[in-house]
Amino acid sequence: MTMYKILIIEDEAPARKKLKRFLDKTGHSYKIVAELETVSDAKLLLSQTQDFDIIFSDIELRDGNIFELYNEVSLNCPIIFATAYNAFLMSAFEANGIEYLLKPYSFERFSNAWDKFIRLKANSNQNYNELIGTISHLLKSNKENNIGYKEQFAIKSNKETYFLKVEDIVCFQADGGIIFAFDQLNKRHIMPYATLKEIEAFLDPKKFFRINRSENIQRKFIDKIERYNKNTISVYLNSQRKTVKTSQNKTSDFNAWLGI
Predict the structure, then answer these.
(1) Residue 136: per-residue pLDDT
(2) Keywords, A to Z (predicted)?
(3) Which of 130, 145, 160 is at the close of a domain?
(4) 22 and 78 fall within a common domain
(5) CATH code of the domain containing 230
(6) Which tens digits make up the pLDDT trace of 98-108?
């Protein structure tokens, strides 16, 4: 049985766990050569070796956008992109992309992407017609999966399902593998998603901003900001009921987002 060598570029542990669970379900033999979480780590590894059969890649990583790397490096293997963002489809195709999985994706979608890789791998000439067909398929897939921004989230409890309006959400917070939303009354709601990235696919980036690795805030609830230290800003939200801080690498982008 062929052993497929796989590189995973993904900064969310739950997403990596899901990917490996789906790989196990395919029944194929594989080896994870490396699991990387940053653009810089990926750049270092790809400068040393490209001995992979396939790359599974997220796009927005903790230190930047992966296309910063793919635009510089000439790759000799295909990429299956798995991301919460649907705005990078054409860039994905230009960077050896053969599939674009929009999170949260099902095993059926994953299996179709994996089967396409197996077919291309089996044909040393990489079946020209199938590669050309990837363009129209990806464009169609992107159109079908262009869910748009949500106006409310369905929140399920043991007894009921209620609806939380996005306009009432002050911020989202990741804590111990659970995503919480805080409303105007500072009430905490458990979200039906595993990562902030999944939720951000449904949020208008003009209204919401990820200020650090674990918190995303809504612009209209910002009361004031003040410098916490040289590279960090304290942000006061919702009549100052809640205070959060930017991470050092987000402060500059946050100021630009605010227009200051």
Answers:
(1) 43
(2) Phosphoprotein
(3) 145
(4) yes
(5) 2.40.50.1020
(6) 888 888 889 99
Read off the CATH number of the domain in which 131 is found: 3.40.50.2300
pLDDT in the model for residue 173: 94
**Residue 103: closest CA among 65, 147, 42:** 147
* pLDDT of the residue at 70: 85
Residue 59 pLDDT > 60, yes or no?
yes
Model confidence at 33, pLDDT cuts 50, 70, 90, reads: very high
Helices (H) and strands (E) counted in the chain, each on its own, are 8, 17
- List of E strands, the chain: 3-9, 29-36, 54-57, 60-61, 64-65, 79-83, 97-102, 152-156, 161-165, 169-175, 178-183, 188-190, 208-212, 215-218, 222-229, 232-237, 242-245
- Sign, CA dihedral 194-38-35-141, equals positive
Instruction: For residue 183, give its domain range.
Output: 152-258
The length of the chain, given as a count of residues: 260
**Both structure tokens of 214:** 């674990």
* Residues contacting 14, CB < 8 A, separation 6+: 177, 194, 195
